[in-house]
Write a structure and sequence with these properties.
The chain is α+β, with helices and mostly antiparallel strands and 421 residues long. The protein contains 17 helices and twelve strands. A five-stranded mixed sheet has the order 1-2-8-5-3. Mean pLDDT is 90; it is low at 1-5.
Length: 421
């Protein structure tokens, strides 16, 4: 069974977005897991942070929200109090405040509720695939992987279909704020002080704030059965979200509701095409293996590479002292390739049974709200692609996102061989 290439040398700068364009720096993560599982990582434009790279350590520290807080930010960027408050979402809250906001919409994303969406997801997947595949050659990311989550997210939000592309373009500009393909305001290359109170320090955040205010006014006047109306209803304590809370929550849903599924879908296709033995196995036993194939795609890709926490008091781990106030980065993507937890972690094995990966977070209060929706979109898309997968070939350079936060393939050129070709 083919084994994935361990990318890069053993001493790459994990903070450099350009490093990740070549692929995941697995050799560096492997060195850290083996030699320095709690490693101090300097930053050129920050105070530095502790890198946590082993699976068990990531789980343990993620669970301990009373020690490892999200309230000072979840990414490497350091924010002052004004910026933190202006850009606050449930991701930057610890329980019980986090729980109050999460409960607002969690009913729409439970496993049972998502099962009721399956037919709608399948119809969308068929439509997207039927638009792309007959062309013979296409960019899988822009023409398929971007389209399905975008359309499903729009339906859940209750946004008009004519607005879907605007919403996803603005989400790309925020999540991809280090990639010049997605934004003119590349966060590490231009002065962003005027946007420092906007989500992701991005002017796209202001556009989404304006859109959120407009759609909120529409829903207050004419409530609908959608996520927007739910967000505007009073919380369990009887108080509605403030205008700023609503705008930040809406922006979070737009930013997180498309990108991670898109990039996992692209990674999953590349894995199958690079491992024809696994593709053949999936085509032979789809009913038996599709679920485990999706889980293995999630583990291997670990699209959200890390989340940051901030230590609230001193912690000893592996002989190192993490001081109160230190930034601590939990590297999900490293934990998902930890040899101590996953045998042959660089082997793509769709029959892998014991696969408690970290792609959605694990063990803490911030487990991904949309995990069941993402699983369903991935499963249905690959079920619908299954008849043509063995005729697909990668036909050009695979381009990756310039980001040290999101591990994503942004262009995956595909050609489809004629039947019998």
């Amino acid at each position: 069974m083919p084994t994935a290439i361990v990318v890069g040398d053993r001493h790459l700068d994990l903070t450099d977005p350009d490093v990740h364009r070549a692929g995941v720096p697995h050799a560096t993560f492997q060195r850290l897991r083996d030699e320095e599982p709690v490693a101090w990582t300097p930053e050129a434009d920050g105070s530095g942070f502790w890198s946590i790279t082993r699976y068990d350590d990531v789980i343990a520290l993620n669970k301990d929200f009373r020690t490892m807080s999200s309230s000072h930010g979840i990414r490497l960027e350091e924010m002052d109090e004004e910026e933190t408050q202006a850009r606050l979402t449930m991701m930057e809250l610890d329980p019980p405040e986090h729980t109050r906001l999460r409960r607002l919409v969690m009913g729409g994303f439970t496993r049972r509720t998502v099962q009721s969406y399956e037919q709608a997801i399948r119809l969308l997947a068929r439509a997207v695939i039927d638009e792309a595949v007959p062309n013979g050659s296409f960019d899988f990311v822009t023409d398929v992987a971007r389209q399905l989550p975008m359309r499903m997210l729009g339906k859940l939000l209750g946004a008009p279909e004519s607005d879907y592309r605007f919403l996803v373009d603005r989400g790309d500009a925020m999540i991809g704020n280090t990639d010049p393909e997605f934004t003119e305001h590349v966060v590490d290359q231009v002065d962003h002080d005027e946007h420092r109170l906007m989500p992701f320090r991005s002017p796209a955040g202001m556009e989404l704030f304006d859109y959120a205010a407009e759609i909120a006014a529409q829903r207050r006047a004419d409530p609908q059965d959608d996520v927007i109306t739910t967000l505007l209803a009073p919380t369990m304590d009887g108080e509605p979200l403030s205008d700023l809370e609503f705008k930040n929550f809406f922006t979070l849903l737009v930013a997180a509701g498309n990108d991670t599924t898109r990039y996992t879908m692209a990674a999953g296709l590349q894995l199958l095409l690079d491992h024809p033995d696994q593709l053949a196995l999936l085509q032979e036993r789809p009913d038996e293996l599709m679920d485990s194939a999706v889980e293995e795609m999630l583990r291997m890709s670990s699209v959200t590479m890390h989340f940051r926490r901030t230590a609230l008091h001193d912690v000893e781990r592996h002989g190192r002292t993490i001081r109160a106030g230190d930034k601590v980065v939990l590297w999900w993507i490293s934990g998902d390739h930890d040899e101590r937890r996953f045998p042959d972690p660089f082997t793509f094995d769709i029959t892998r049974e014991d696969n408690p990966h970290l792609a959605f977070g694990r063990g803490g209060p911030h487990r991904c709200l949309g995990e069941w929706l993402a699983r369903s979109e991935l499963k249905v898309t690959f079920e619908e692609l299954l008849p043509v997968l063995d005729r697909m070939v990668i036909d050009g350079p695979v381009e990756r996102l310039r980001s040290n936060f999101i591990s994503g393939i942004k262009h995956l050129p595909i050609s489809v061989r004629p039947t019998g070709g």
